Fold:
Amino acid sequence: MAGYALWLYWPDFEAMALALTFSGNFVAGLVFLAGGVFQLVTARPAPRFLYFDAIVVLTLVFVICVIFMDSLTTFDVLFVLHVVNPLLALGLWLGLVDHSVSRFVPTVLSGAVFPLVYFNLVILTGAGGYDFVDVDQQGIGGVLLFALGCLAALLATGALLLALNRLLHRPTPRESTVM
Structure:
C-alpha cells in the first residue's frame, strides 16, 4: 500500500502530502509494515489499536470515494487505492487481528486521531485536493461541518467494525471451557 501510493503521487509532492487517498494508503501501509517487522523482531504482536486506526483511515478513503467520486469505472491505479486496498486491508484485519480483548471505547476513539490530524492540516493550510475540503470553495464553516460529519460517521463505523471483529474472534464454547 505505502509503496504503491508513493509511486502514484510522487510527481506532485504537494498534492501527495495533503491527499487523503495518498496519506491514508501510505500511513496504513506503514502501519502494517511496521507491525509485521515489530512482530518479527520482538515475537510479540504490535499494538492492535494501530491496525484499527489504519482500517478506519482506509474506510474513510473508501466511503468518501463511494459517495463523491463517480469516475472510478475502470480498474486502474485510482481504483486500487480507493477500493481494492481498503477492502483488502479490511478483510485481512477482520480475519487476522483479534480485538476481542481490546478496550472498546479507547480503541474506537483512537480511530479518530488520523482524520483529526488530516482535517486540521487541511484547515490550516487551506489545501486538501478535494472540493469538499476546499476552504476557498466551501468556506471554513463548510469544511468544519464536513469534518465533524466525517468524525461522527467514523466513530460509528469504527464501533461497528470493532464489534464485528469481536464477534468474529469470540471464543467458541469449547475454547472457553478448555482447562
